Amino acid sequence: MTNCVNKLLKDLGENINLSPDKWSEERLIQSGNKKWISNILPAELLKRTVKQAVESLVTINESGEFYKVFPDNIETPNYSDLWGRSANYIEINNRAIAEMFGERTKNGILSSIKILPAIPPSAKSWANCVILSQIFPNIYGDGYNKGGSVENSIYGIKLNAGYSGNIIDYDIKLSGEEQFCAFNTLAHIHGLKTGFRTVISADQIKIAYPDRDDETFNWNNPEHQELFINEHVKLINTGFEAIFIDSAKHIGGYDMGNYTGVGALPGYEQMQYILYEIRLRSGVTSISFVGEKSTEDFARYENLGLTTGTAFIPPDNYDKVKCWSEKLKYNKNYAPGVEVSNDNDQGGRSYENRLNRINSSLFAYEYPSDKLPSFMQMEDLFPLRYDTNTHHLMMTNPSYSSDGTPLSHWENLFTKEDGRAYNTKVNELFAHAMNL
Predict the structure, then answer these.
(1) Which pLDDT score is estimated for 2?
(2) What's the start-to-end Cα distance of the chain, in Å?
(3) The pTM is what?
């Protein structure tokens, strides 16, 4: 693609000439050449303009070179094709931080760009990867926020309908793919990998058609399967390198007694084919496929084509994490990971417990090359207000604005000064790990 960042700035009515960002320089935490913003409340970033976010990322980029105009060629951080085996995955609910004007929700990708400077960049020995919660339109109420008791789930998606009105800025000329390209390019200059969440439960997917009613997805329909593959290939071609697969543990009918999704799942060999085809058609050999809870039968999931899975290793026990790191150190294709929190997190975990889990994720190994992957949510970096939680914001889309403006929503979505202090402690842990 052409320079998507400059195209985005132009479409937003901005000049593409960049200036050093003094605001960011005054809020930096630094470890070697790695720089990012710390001691922060998300609203302080989200109320800035996209151009200010771009200037921030150019100002703090690892090379130390300031670009007066955003460059044409920014490569993804190079940690080999097997980078996903040891990465830290941080899921950002881009719908929750979108702009909420009254009952409308929009421009979540712009908010995701604005928050990038405060995400710790990748370390010397492993990558950090931002996972976006929403890409496709949700089946009900897409583009609108509702009360906290009204279901508006991210887990129900439409394919063949473009991208979510919660996420894409449809008031500018830039296509959805180009907006994702801009986000991915800006993440790359900050030293981050990127990915997105997808679902595979058939009754949670609709196929949209311009001239007839939506169809429920059917894994036995070759046209549906082909559409699923191609929709994901299009996204990989915008610069994403990871796909988080909801309910992946149960692919092929495995452990269905604990399945909580709705509808049929793809067969085992069918999913092998789908993952192979996504890699083949995109030409991206470095894709990391992350399976939710796909961890108990390591060979089963490695042979499926997955890179890692969640919720197997006890995250509160540093010694057990280190022990599993030792056991699995010779398998560089697949390993289960350490979970700080997941998308089903109901809140209530203390700051101390979260910090302890992050410490285990970043340091529990003998050598950095043996590090296990880890999984975090937005709340593990930026604590949410006390009466909500990660899962609630996946299932519903409330606005916390007191005056109908985006700024009020952002200010009220997260905790206040205790959250700032916690954010500082999290970033101190990441800073210690940067040069290992």
Answers:
(1) 81
(2) 35
(3) 0.98
